[in-house]
Amino acid sequence: VMNLTSWRGRSGRRYVVGIHPLTEAELREIGEAVLLAVRRDGDGLATLVEAESVGPRLSAPARRAFVARTGRQGATELHVHRLAETAAERQAIVEELRER
Description:
Helix content: 25-40%
Oligomer: single chain
Order of helices and strands: EEHEEHEH
Number of helices: 3
Largest sheet: 5 strands, antiparallel
Shape: globular
Distance between the termini: 29 Å
Radius of gyration: 13 Å
């Protein structure tokens, strides 16, 4: 059973995401999507560390770099939004969520 949650962009639109551990193995299975690296505080409040749009294939070096970079910033979860249909739509979501 996949855990789901949502993020609200500054426009008020909600983006449903699946919650996964932040590991390179998890990233291997992800195709076109918006990736959100997330850390949680002691009270369980999620904070966005980094948002990125990815295409059909994320290379092994790119997967490793994303996990290492965001992990150094305290991220432990990967939130994945898969409902955006185009690269432009994914990038717009990234920008909306980054500027909250």
